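Input (structure):
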């Protein structure tokens, strides 16, 4: 038996992970993050199913953290939940303004929308018209946040946030790439009253607390898979001492069930969570997907349907690729 890590006691053998592993390729309803299909590896442990789905370009060291999260959720100790349903935001990719209404309709009852901005190859004018359309459709009570994925430099961010402020933004997520840039943009835009949230600067930095320590953000966006699991994400929230928004990584409903579990265990949950993205998929692994109903998703384990696992099974070549990745990442646990 390999050495016992804290996230799953004891660490299941690799053979056990491989025995239950299923790899799927799911079509997206809307291109997002430059992809039209989402690949994911699902695993069944003693607690139920979990998802291992680092993006394809991530290296093994980063991906091993995502595997730690899956192993914890399927085999390890998970914390008690404090709530049974989680309010979620609609997620609006960087689409043409004419597609905004169709996308919002996929998110039943969501009072909050997160809109992607600063997409490479697009202009601020396109961002402004997309955000304006969401504001028009949601009305004055809708809550609107934007996510730039670090796509602006500090001057561009200052200009864009100033231009978008008229839409009453709840926050701007990752306007710039680095922690020092976030510190600077937060200083420059403070007078506008638009809070800054950090996502990549939490999940991709070696030290997820650096953002909080440097005063680089008002809010943290936390994702269970990239942070290495629910308990690690809860530790980050406790140590950072900032309000948390729980989000996800374009997961299947199985991955979203882990995100919902994290959101359910966070002591204070003041913001709607980025866990409604099953609605961006045009197929899922379960007949009972975690779609928003009345603006919220359930906190529950998700059991994939054998019919859907077969129907959306990845090609033999992609399955082998994922199993090799699983083995390499397991070796890093
Ligand atoms: O937070 C949401 O509304 C949905 C999740 C989401 O936006 C993301 C999922 C996956 C990859 C990321 O580029 C992206 C994000 O940056 O938050
Ligand atoms: Mg983000």
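Output (sequence):
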């Amino acid at each position: 038996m390999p050495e016992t890590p804290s996230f799953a006691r004891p660490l299941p053998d690799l053979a056990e992970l491989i025995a239950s592993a299923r790899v799927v390729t799911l079509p997206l309803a809307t291109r997002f993050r430059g992809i039209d299909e989402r690949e994911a590896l699902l695993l069944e442990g003693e607690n139920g199913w979990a998802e291992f789905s680092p993006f394809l370009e991530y290296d093994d060291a980063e991906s091993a953290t995502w595997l730690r999260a899956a192993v914890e959720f399927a085999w390890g100790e998970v914390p008690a939940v404090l709530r049974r349903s989680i309010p979620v935001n609609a997620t609006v990719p960087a689409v043409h303004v004419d597609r905004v209404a169709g996308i919002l309709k996929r998110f039943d009852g969501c009072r909050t929308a997160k809109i992607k901005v600063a997409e490479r190859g697009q202009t601020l004018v396109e961002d402004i018209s997309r955000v304006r359309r969401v504001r028009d459709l949601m009305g004055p009570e809708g809550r609107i946040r934007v996510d730039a994925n670090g796509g602006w430099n500090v001057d561009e961010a200052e200009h864009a946030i100033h231009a978008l402020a008229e839409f009453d933004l709840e926050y701007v997520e990752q306007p710039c790439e680095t922690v020092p840039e976030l510190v600077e943009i937060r200083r420059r835009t403070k007078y506008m009253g638009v809070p800054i949230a950090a996502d990549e600067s939490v999940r991709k930095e070696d030290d997820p607390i650096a953002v909080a320590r440097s005063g680089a953000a008002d809010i943290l966006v936390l994702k269970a898979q990239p942070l290495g699991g629910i308990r690690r994400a809860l530790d980050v929230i406790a140590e950072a001492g900032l309000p948390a928004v729980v989000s996800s990584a374009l997961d299947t409903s199985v991955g979203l069930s882990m995100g919902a579990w994290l959101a359910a265990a966070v002591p204070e949950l003041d913001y709607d969570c980025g866990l409604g993205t099953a609605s961006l998929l045009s197929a899922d692994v379960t007949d009972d997907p975690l779609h928003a109903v009345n603006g919220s998703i359930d906190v529950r384990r998700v059991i994939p349907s054998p019919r859907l696992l077969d129907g959306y099974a990845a090609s033999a070549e992609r399955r082998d690729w994922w199993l090799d990745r699983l083995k390499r990442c397991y070796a890093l646990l």
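Notes: The two ends are 13 Å apart (CA to CA). The first strand starts at residue 22 and ends at 32.
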